[in-house]
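QA checklist item 7 of 12: single-chain prediction sanity check.
[x] sequence parsed
[x] length recorded as 521
[x] structure emitted
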Amino acid sequence: MQRRPNSRHLIPPAAAIAAVAIVIAVLMFQRIGAGDVCSGDEAVEGVFVQQMVEHGQLLFPVENGSIPMYKPPLFHWTAAAIDYLAGIRRVTAANLRFPSALYATAGAILTMLFAYGILGLEGAILAGLALAGSYQYIVLGRFGRVDMTLCFFETLSLFAFLIWLPRDATVSAARARVESNVGALYVMALAMALGVLAKGPVGAILPGISILIFMIVERRGRQIFAMLDPGAIILGAALASSWYLACYVGGRSGFLDRQLGDENLGRFFGALGAMSPLYYVKPILLNSAPLSLLVPIAAITALSVRFRRILTEFVARFSSRVSEVAPENSSTSFGPARALSSVRLFAIFYFVTVVFFSLAAYKRRSYLLPVWPASALILAWWILTLVPLGWRRRAIYIFGALCLALAIFNFIYIPAKEVAACRDDSFRPVAEEIARVVGPDEPLYVYGFKEELAPLLFYLDRDAPVLKGRLGDAPPGYIILPASVWKQRAHEALDLEPVLTSDHGQRHLVVLKRGKSYAVR
């Protein structure tokens, strides 16, 4: 059946992109605070956000009175800024997760807009639906941690670079400076710098390595020097180093040691131990199956020498089709050759990220999150270009339907899973009971815990120093400890009086009192 020539005008591009963006926003924000904060990773960030929002410690917040934050503070600053603008003065599960959901939604919109420029409306919709169907992208967009902030700015830096990139691969560096979009170069520098402030040097290293490899593979080595704009370099370096310099000038060596030493050098040079380099095989393939099963295939296709001839033929044969779906007279419409070049950069970024973190100790599945916007674009390009023309329309509908089905699954399953995961493991009801017994200004300690204390501290919303040694040597005040520890140590602290026994799900705690008789609330 012959397609009507004006079919692309049946749905206004802005309306179609907005519709997919609304779907993603609903997936991100619906019931975002229904599940308690019971993960140590999320609770640690929550404690630092509490210090910023509730106590004004914007530069150097500490956990439990002494432990410095081990990530740069951009995620936390974003949360504090949102709470300030909204007049919120207390951190909850919902507003802790709100910045991640906001960055995730904005990242999806950014991805669709870029896809619209290189692949047209169909590519934009497919890329957006791929993100809606990605289990990992939706889960981490609803998680109060720095990963989605990093994902957004790494993605922005890649897009800005491609907008800056001269169209002609053969022009000299001097000519490239004249013909390229200098403003995009500054956006790239700012995005890399903000990526550093989101999670550390990796925010600039990964897109930077990917861009360097891309320029060499594309035989644009001479144009690398065109990127060395003094203003962009100074601006990016100043912003990226700002918090680190503040730590140095302020004498906060503990922050620098933990962020640069433990989190970066230690992770890659063996100080934190080692893990199998094959750790990511399962997450790569299954973090958002079946979509994640397709991404490596599509990425390899974009880079493979074997397929280069096929792709070149596509550029010549189907350029008219891409120009049909691409926006007319648009400065961001790059054409099929530029689309192929862009997808190659995304494929390089995908593999650089996987290899880079495969070398690290204490790997986490969430480290793969930043590849998802690039992966969504790779998948959209793959469907629109390499599927035989006679099957392409059918493949578009099948892929779109698959992504919608996955999005519906994410809509139903993820919030329910978040609630169920903390149903028997939350410190919230225990903390509420403790708050009724212990006044906010009365001394409170913890003893005998072998797990991360951040989830308890988050709901206590106060410090509770850790006691070590003999329980009988505890200072006056209240002491929280597991019921099992109290059972073992009761004989060595006969003058400690139990004032609260709390049993909620897996949480069995006892609160002891030593010293004067405090008022029970």
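[x] summary fact logged: Strands lie at 62-63, 67-68, 444-447, 466-467, 477-482, 497-504, 507-514.
[ ] second reviewer sign-off
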